[in-house]
From TrEMBL:
Protein name per Swiss-Prot or TrEMBL: Dihydrodipicolinate synthase
Binding site for pyruvate: 53
Gene3D superfamilies attached to this UniProt entry: Aldolase class I (3.20.20.70)
Entry annotated with the keyword Lyase: yes
Similarity-based family: Belongs to the DapA family.
Active site: 141 (proton donor/acceptor), 166 (schiff-base intermediate with substrate)
A GO term, aspect molecular function: 4-hydroxy-tetrahydrodipicolinate synthase activity
Amino acid sequence: MEFETLRAALADVVAIPVTPFAEDGSVDTAAHRALLRRLLDGGVRTLTPNGNTGEFYALAPEERRAVTEATVEEAGGRAVILVGVGHDVPTAVEAARHAHATGADMVMVHQPVHPYVSESGWVDYHRAIAEAVPELGVVPYIRNPLLSGARLAELGAACPNVVGVKYAVPDAARFAGFARDAGLDRFVWVAGLAEPYAPAYFASGATGFTSGLVNVSPALSLEMLHALRAGDYPTAMKVWERIRRFEELRAANGSADNVTVVKEALASLGLCRRAIRPPSRELPDAARAEVAAIAGGWPI
């Protein structure tokens, strides 16, 4: 697939599907595939298996491979597949090569999990992964507010397959400067903190946003996207107001229940079990009714 096609796929709702679990604790493949079909039928055209909403860090390597394979197969060419990879360099490279062999189009490189991350080391980490899969588009997932745009520009100059950026630092002014220092037109800028930050980040140059909420209501996510593409910020903010409480619940306490709230909403709709793996937790009984009420009032 040409990189321009991949760039277009990032300038969209970049869905992060959940990974449902069966009663015995294993990945519920049937429910997973059903949720993927629901996204595809709802108009979603970019899927990210093994993202944070998919509990990347709680999945075993063989489970991550199975999730990738199921997503590629279920999409059947109806969506561009952006596979989450990470951990140490050999593990990330192995996962990226598996994604390529499976038929995925891009990889999203999770933020390095290491207590000591230097800027030059950040470049080296991503360059090693990108150079191992030159056929795939590569999307760094940036959560580090200390990283400079110049370092991303350096990575982009060395690796033409680094086509986009998932920017997830919660600072719209910093994003605007970072994007311009790195190259506003060189990369596709994806608002990596989803719908709550999408209007502010679009105003500064983003053209796509990630979403976990899209698992529950593809229609709302796409409504916001279409409004932002048209520059219709009042309509986008109407959607923002509608989803505000749901996203506040996800963001509370350092996003402790980020995935939990999404799974609770899906469980309330009868779409999958609410089960989630440690170190996350299931939502307390007192909060379940509120989530169900919110999800029950949304369009599909």
